[in-house]
Amino acid sequence: MAMGAENGHGKNSAHPSNGHASEEGSSLKLLVRNAKGEAERGAIVHALEQTRWNRKAAARLLNVSYRALLYKIQEYGLTPPREPARFLGAGDLHGAK
Are 65 and 59 spatial neighbours (Cβ–Cβ below 8 Å)? Predict the structure, then answer.
């Protein structure tokens, strides 16, 4: 009987009932989830920049479907960079009022 009580006590000491273990576990999950999201977002941004926002080419680079890439772009709120005013001539910039 003493052996059963020891095993029961050993289980309790390995898993404290004060809630800290579950909080630490959930914060570790959150940390991993955030790191994964940041890495995924960074890879998508890099592929989009490398292809000058050609989404089909970026999807091929990432080895994902075009639809999956569109979903991730929307999920992360990514938008193409604004086009620079390269169509204006040099004289247009100085003469603009």
Answer: yes
